[in-house]
Amino acid sequence: MRIYLCVLWAIRASGHNVHIAVDAQGALQLARDASPREPLLRRNGGSNETRSEVMLEENLAPPRTGNQSGHETPESLRAAEKERHAMSTLTYVWFPMAVVLALLFEVLHWPWAEVDWNLPMERSDGREGSEKVDSSFLGLTLLLASRAWSLARIYLAGAGRVKGRCYLLVLVWIHILGMYLDLITFDFQQRYWNLYQQPSLPLFFELIRNWFILHFTRMITYVYEFYVEDMFFLHCRDHLTRYFEAIWVPNTYVFRMREGGKFDNPDQRIHVDVANFVTQTYSLSFGVTKMIVNMLMYSYMLMSITPASMHAGTLVSIAFLYSAVGSAAMHFLGAQLAHFSWQGERCAGDFRSELRRVYDQSETVASLRSEGAELQRLKHRFEKIKLNTWQSMLLEKRLAILQKWYSPLREVLFMCILAPFFIRGEVSLGRLKQSESALDKISDSLSFLVDNYSRLSVYRATVDRLHNFRHSCLTYLHQEKSSRQAQDTQLIQTLALLGLPPGWPKRLGGADAPPAPAALPASAASGGPLQLEAALLLPSGELLIDVQLEVPAGACVLLCGKEGAGKSTILKAMAGMWPFLRNTRAPPSNDMVLIPQKPRLPMPLTLREAVSFPQSSTKWSEEEIRAVLDRVGLSDFAQNGLDVQLDVNSSLSGGEFQKLMVAHCLLQKPAWVLLDESMAHMSSANRVKMYQLLTDELVAHGSGLISTSHSWQELVSFHGHFYRIETSRTDGTQMHRELQTFDPKEALGEDELALRVKDKDAEIARLRQELVQLQRDRRNSERAN
Predict the structure, then answer these.
(1) What are the start-end ranges of the E strands in 573-720?
(2) Are 373 and 332 in contact (CB under 8 A)?
(3) 3-class SS at 284?
(4) What are the ABC transporter domain coordinates in residue numbering (predicted)?
(5) Is the pTM higher than 0.85?
(6) Residue 499 belongs to some domain of the structure
(7) 81-96 b/e with 16+ CB inside 10 Å = b?
């Protein structure tokens, strides 16, 4: 029997076919039946005959290709049992404990939030030109792409027409090289893992050499991709920032008045949102492109390496279905994330603005002792940040649960699909790893919405903020341009009636229009009158006053009226600053300076820059600037030099700051000077002195002067035209205002009479009080007696 078994073993070892091996196994079984033995070989014992049978049994087993046999062996059963007990502590102790603690935390942690859940917060829905966010699936895809492209064209059609496109071409080439390296890595992966099945030392060294070459090339592409990206981002951000500054800064006041504070924190939109838009647009655009390319490329490769017993498109179909379900679930759970992102930026911007206001107005806070009220305002602002953050946290927690299940479950699903083919020996380990890698690439591409949903929501809010901000700015600029074109058309028609050529003057604002002239000196100012024919409206649309005003060139006009009558509004309309006009015939705002009652300048500035602002400080010599400062009484500030930086808004008192504005007018020499209570913080003597300077150096050389003042009696000698706003109530509720001329002498007489009556009334009141006191003293003395 032993000789027969040895012959069979030799036949098996010599490489005969499987049929002989099967016959040998049958013979072995017959031998076992004929010679009873122990069923199992003990670890440290056993007869020689039993040992030989076991050795023969092992040698007669089918050859292995690196994967396990599909039959259950004692070793596999013991391995499964060992795996079952390997995580018993986690299964029966820590996992139930984690679930219970999580449930307890969900129930008990709400009082720790310290959030007012009933605090009203503004909602949003995403309409064109409004401060809204569209959280629908269409809003996160097609509408988002449309709005993002309209913003990107600003750069690509402007400064990025050549330079920006060159940057993009270089980056596209780098990305193509990166995809090529991905394919090389994909092919390298099969050879790398097959080494574990078929070990070879020479092959090992060649694989390591290729690995270093491959990853050194990837390092070079990564470094220069990162570097060129930063160059592109900075160039694009520079152009977009200057674009938004150009459409916002020239009409800042008008835009703010028109929108009524609807578009808050424009500084954040220009500084933060532009930077985020550039980087996010690039990363998402290339991400979508890479997603499509990878999906097509790896789908084809996966179908080519699919096991023979499986349909070629089965794995790709499973990946598509799994990603579609995950994307739908992610959008269902996170639809409001874009709104919370928008709202969070708004609340943070409001809080920063409130902190800055407290810093800028620290003197007012200290004088009013309003620290407690300011702390309450800051607390209210931060409560909104807390509420929005908590709402975002709750939503992101639900999304995190889905995302943390989505990727691991995908890996287990793909492993469950491919493992049977590996166990049956249909695929090698290298082919298995290739299939897993291809499935991961396809699934990552199809799961783009799931993996980037939070980024897309933040990006949607960023694009909406910039788009709506730009939409409103351009809408106003378009209205202004249409109004100017209508005025130009009317002027051209009038000139045609006078026999002038129709091509004169050129269309305002056109590409061939000459540049606007610089401010002329008063001696060269236009000789035309200053006209304002318009109905001035309040922001609510209510009529404020109907103005029909014509001021001759070089005239001095004094505008009087009660507080709130509309004096400042008329000056703003003359300067082209008031946007709420009807039936407009307003003067151009060129060569005109309006000094408000409380002007402010950027900080920090040197004294030279402050007196010259907004003109260049090199326009006038140091002698001219020092002479002007000396005439207005600010020569003490120039003792330390004109180029020492200081915050003029806090270093100068109210009266000194107004003197600085007068010095600016004396240097600028505009055709028209509009003073809106611009001397209110000066003493009576200084006020007269400043008006005398303006009269001698500007009005005497042809400049016009229009002033508003409460203490107008002392300014009569500096003006030649006098207007007063008369107010009355028509039906008991509606306020009617009318601009009328008046004689200052008669007004002074009326004022003197009013002062006398007031003095008499005060005297009568004093005598009455004395009489009451005498009567009280008399009654007290009578009671004492």
Answers:
(1) 581-585, 592-595, 605-606, 645-646, 672-676, 704-708
(2) no
(3) helix
(4) 527-752
(5) no
(6) no
(7) eeeeeeeeeeeeeeee
Pair of tokens at residue 694: 């303006």
- Same domain, residue pair 687 and 779: no
Secondary structure class of 433 (helix, strand, coil): helix
82 occurs within a structural domain:
no
Q: List, for residues 457-475, the tens digit of each pLDDT value.
A: 778 888 888 888 888 777 7
Same domain, 198 and 325: yes
Comparing C-alpha atoms, which of 559, 563, 581, 542 is closest to residue 740? 559
Token pair, residue 339, equals 């709104």
d(CA 593, CA 571): 11
The dihedral region occupied by 682, where left means phi > 0, alpha psi between -120 and 50, and beta the remainder, is: beta
Contact 622, 634 (CB under 8 A): no
Query: Rounded to whole angstroms, how far apart are CA atoms 307 and 359?
Result: 71
**Whole-number Å distance between alpha carbons of 127 and 148:** 15
Cβ–Cβ < 8 Å for 649, 603: yes
Contact 236, 428 (CB under 8 A): no
Q: Residue 480 in contact with residue 576, Cβ under 8 Å?
A: no
**Position 94 in a domain:** no
- Range of 280's domain? 143-475
- The answer to whether residues 556 and 705 belong to one domain is yes
* Rounded-to-integer distance, Cα 555 and Cα 530, Å: 10
Q: Residue 234, Cβ neighbours under 10 Å: how many? A: 12
Write the CB contacts of 461 (distance below 8 Å, at least 6 apart in sequence).
133, 338, 339, 341, 342, 345
Tell me which DSSP letter residue 410 carries. Answer: H
CA atoms within 13 A on the CB side of 190: 13
Burial of 311 (0-12, 13-18, 19+ CB in 10 A): exposed
pLDDT in tens, 618-672: 888 888 888 888 888 888 888 877 887 777 777 788 888 888 888 888 888 888 8
Note whether 726 and 776 are same-domain residues. Answer: no
Higher pLDDT, 785 or 358: 358
Three-class secondary structure of residue 605 per DSSP: strand
Domain for residue 513, yes or no? no
Residue where the block lists tokens 């009484």: 633
List the structure tokens of 433: 């790893």
Rounded CA separation 23/8 (Å): 9
